[in-house]
Amino acid sequence: MTFVTMGPMLKRAQAAGYGIAAFNMIDYNSARSIVDGAVELQAPIIVQVSVKTIRHWGFKPIATWVRMMADDVDIPVALHLDHCTDEDVIKRCIDAGWTSVMFDGSSLPFAENRARSEAIYRLTESAGVGLEAEIGAIGGVEDDKFVAEDSAILADYDECLEFVKNMPNLAVFAPAIGTAHGVYKGQPKIAYDLLERISGAVGIPIALHGGTGLSQEQFDRCISGGCAKVNISTMHKLRFIDGFLDVRQAKPKLEEPLPFIVGQYDAMKRDVCDMITAFGSRGKAAQAAGMVG
Fold this sequence. Notes:
293 residues; alpha/beta; TIM Barrel; two-stranded antiparallel ribbon; 10 strands; 49% helix
């Protein structure tokens, strides 16, 4: 298999009751840990990239890395642009070969968010690329965007229906349901009833943002409520750092860099495998790709 657009596989995952992990890559080694972990467990996977990561490495290098990995494996791999407010970045990702993008207009007034999301939807539809759009204010830190958790705003049910009505092929919809980016300062208050109402009404796979730190029970309830895409970013970043520091602590005089890279890879891959198992997508690669029922 090679690159896939994530919409069809998310629909299959939602219908079958499991979640597909979407990990934010950091570098080539990180992307390799994500894809290799998914291959080991025969799971579909989404490699997603923040705008600041793209600005560091460049559009073409990232697309080349992930496409090269996807071409060599037997699972469906989507390359996704995470939380982006810049339409020029979205266009450049599409031109570079991304299979899906996210326009995050959640900080805008409702009418402006809807209008701009619909304009980008038309662009992605013509390019054969999936689109994720967001409504409401998800708490925490994502890239350079900060929303205090006590200032987060749950998505409005009626606005959600209005928001998506002109985007029937939206790959995934991200309404704010009480989760937060980053590390939770307290117990997350997830609006499960709201999630189920929205999911049941819009007929579009739902994205769960702020997956780091949720319990298995919380993951299960969100996935059964319609969340087919589950984002993990903070945990992956922490394992990237921990993997390096663990090697430094064990071998403080080591001057060869490769063991540090291997330590990072191993730490990140373990968590990739753990999350895939937690979301129920282990062994679902062929089903997500539409090769089996």
